[in-house]
Amino acid sequence: MKEMFVKEMSVKESSVFNSLSITPLLKLKNRIVLAPLYYEWEFGSRAFMKFFETRAKGGIAMAVVPICIGPHELNNLSGADRENFIAKSRSFIELMHSYDCKVLPQVFSGVGEDVNQLSLEQLNTLPDAFAGASRLLYEAGYDGIDIHGAHHSLFMSLISPAINQRQDRFGGSEANRFQLPLNTIKAIHAAIKDFPIFYRFSAVDFINQGFDIEQGVRFAKALCDAGVSCIDVSAGGTHLSPLYSDAPGEEAGEACFAIYSSAIKQAVPIPVMVAGRINLLSTAEEIVDNFHADLLAIGRALVRNPDWIEEIQENQAACL
Fold it and tell me: How many CB atoms within 10 Å of residue 3?
């Protein structure tokens, strides 16, 4: 009996299962987040609801859920379409909240390949479009917004010196390349002051003369100053990056992006989330305990097994 008590206490005391306050309005019960996963399910369909419910029931603290339309489309929903989206969202959020699981919709910033073709006028519409989309998401009851500015997104291509070849005020200098994402954060804050904003970007793009970790740290600091609540760190995945660099295989090793999140974590006072082959509790604990990141975005492990959290807890207890 005494031995069992010690094991149970040790599992509970794991740093991975400590709560974390992102903002005064957003508190997570543990450090495990379901990473954004793009499937071809219809939003609110039975398959969609079942997938996310089983992961919420399994103990995740939050799910980052891709909304497969961009900010302009969300902003322009009206009439029955708007009512249907809000109704489906509220039903989904209520279900997830019943398991004490927060829901963060991920909104795509646009296609990266378009970065040098879009007009200045088209780019200038994005901050207001994101602000409008955020108002709708806030009205629907979501716990915040995750801006997809990583991988093949428009915002990632904008900040990459190797990809962005624009000759206007959004190209050239680092300040110019950072300007549109930062304007977007400020526009959301102006529209909804207390809406938590997560921002996902690739800390490096693995391109010669491209976006490196030094630039990534400076960008993270700028995002923090603009009002972002959490930095969501990934890597690679642009249309010029090596294939599958954003979804590394086993050869990359455990926690392969933690080296990048660690550099950012040391530079900003806000929480940092990281993805990239986190499969073991020992890996997760090393990331949290050594201040490489505060939150763990788990993808493939939770896809394979909705009860992954319970399994790693049982495995830990068995090793004590």
Answer: 8
